[in-house]
Amino acid sequence: MKKLFKKKKSLYDTPYTFQEAVINGDKWTKANFVIMGIGNLVHKQIVKGLLFLFSQLAFIFFMIMYGFNCLVMLPSLGTLEQGEVWNEAKGIYEYTQGDQSLLILLFGVATIFLFVGFIMMWRSSIKSAYKAQCLAYEGKHINSIVDDIKDLFDKDLHKLLLTGPVLGILIFNILPLIFMISMAFTNYSIIDKHLVLFDWVGLDNFVKVLNFNDTIGQQFWGVLSWTIIWAIFATFLNYIFGMLLAIVINRKETKGKAFWRFCFILSIAVPQFVSLLIMRTMLQPNGAINVLLMNAGLITDPLPFFGNVLWARVTVIVINLWVGIPYTMLQVTGILQNIPGELYESAKVDGANAFVTFFKITLPYMLFVTTPYLITTFTANINNFNVIYLLSNGDPTPVGATAGKTDLLVTWLYKLTVDKQYYNLGAVIGIMTFVVLAIVSLVTYRNTGSYKNEEGFM
Fold first, then answer.
1. What is the CATH classification number for the domain harbouring 350?
2. DSSP of 186-227, one letter per residue?
3. Cα→Cα distances 260→199, 330, 361, Å
4. Angle separating helix axes 101-138 and 46-62, nearest 10 degrees
5. pLDDT (0 to 100) of residue 6
């Protein structure tokens, strides 16, 4: 063993990695491959060794009692259908317990996550045993459990503070996401009455959604195109008008700046869903706006704010401007005040007017600083459930269709899953929404000045 260590300048100049443990580990370290914690126990790390050993025993118990069955059932998602048996004593039909594919899928995915987590802990136990071996060979101090706890509040503080959030993300974000993605490859839907027992169908759902000749496919491409159009108008119109409003208020000649800002900030203080529901009521055929216009003799028939496709789409864009411009105004106000005044003075000396200074100084500076904000806003508008669902509810909706002409991908997904119970198609729409957002966000950001020139502007 000593000769093996002398081949290197110093074994302990290298990190305590899993690969090093495999190559240079002693018999106790390699025994950790089978019995977790034994290497720590040998080197007097009793509590840590027992924790590793207990984790292994708990995992083995779980796999024997539940885990292996969950993994075995996962490929089939269950085969035993719910039965109906006549109970002569009670004089009624009773249902026998059958397989529930949804629970089998959920438990199977969770078991896979648990298995991956155990593999990571197993590797960690081997590295920990190897570190104890190395420290013992050099005669250095081997941490006790008390020392490890002290390190968690000192040099390993990041591990203590980040473990909880990371576990939360895994349990409440990653696990449900994988579960939803898995559902996209099944026929879990009331279309085939498979609400209890369903099967894997491969890529059939994706083919159905992407097929131009299928009813669902035609609706998907229509909703996708409108979603992108909506996101572009909702993002850039809000941005442009919000910036212009902030510029007008920030002008030296503008009197009562605080009052004008208060007027627009007041609309933010009102809960958005309240404002949207009020606007929806006012824009109905017998709502306040149509009644006032007809009483004034300006129109004879109610305006089809949500009954005509073009009217409905323009309406939701305009109402979104009224809701979103104050937010943009607040975002850009501080940035406008940070633009160096020398730039404007130099431009004025060179004879530039307000139009030129806006496009040569203000707009480039704003775009450089706020590009990440624009991308975030674009993403939020693609997923802007509130404005569409509370204002138009996706209307107008053709007869027999599951998606309305103002539905976004996210509102259509909601209708498919909650209203129609087409869970498999809803999962596919969720995946496609993520793909669109990821591609647009990454490509756009990587081609902006904010990414290519992070050092500064000008």
1. 1.10.3720.10
2. B--STTTT-SSS--B-TTHHHHHHH-TTSHHHHHHHHHHHHH
3. 60, 12, 25
4. 160
5. 43
Token pair listed for 395? 């209307």
**Which segments of 67-123 are extended strands (E)?**
83-87, 92-96
Judge whether 110 lies within some domain.
yes
pLDDT above 60 for 454: no
What domain count does the chain have? Answer: 2
User: Average pLDDT of 16-45?
Assistant: 91
Least Cα distance to 390 among 296, 280, 300 occurs for 280
Residue 198 lies in a domain: no
Q: Is 353 a domain residue?
A: yes
C-alpha triplet 293, 297, 299: angle, nearest 5°: 60
Exposure on the CB side of residue 31, measured as CA atoms within 13 A: 12
Please indicate, yes or no, whether residues 273 and 161 belong to a single structural domain of this protein. no
293 Cβ contact list (under 8 Å, min separation 6): 299, 303
- Domain end among 121, 148, 183: 183
- Sign for the pseudo-dihedral over CA of 402, 407, 410, 415: negative
Angle, CA of 213, 400 and 432, to the nearest 5° = 55
The string of DSSP letters for 347-416 reads HHHTT--HHHHIIIIIHHHHHHHHHHHHHHHHHHHHT-HHHHHHHTTT-S--TT-SS-TT--HHHHHHII
Give the model's pLDDT for residue 93. 58
Cα distance between residue 218 and residue 211, in whole Å: 7
Q: Which of residues 213 and 82 earns the better pLDDT score?
A: 213
For the cut 50, the answer to whether the pLDDT of residue 352 exceeds it is: yes
- Is beta strand 83-87 parallel, antiparallel or unpaired with respect to 92-96? antiparallel
Q: Which domain holds residue 115?
A: 2-183
Mean pLDDT of 41-50: 92
Q: Which residues contact 264 (CB under 8 A, 6 or more apart)?
A: 245, 325, 326, 329
DSSP 184: T
Spatial CB neighbours of 109, under 8 Å, sequence gap ≥ 6: 175, 178, 179, 182
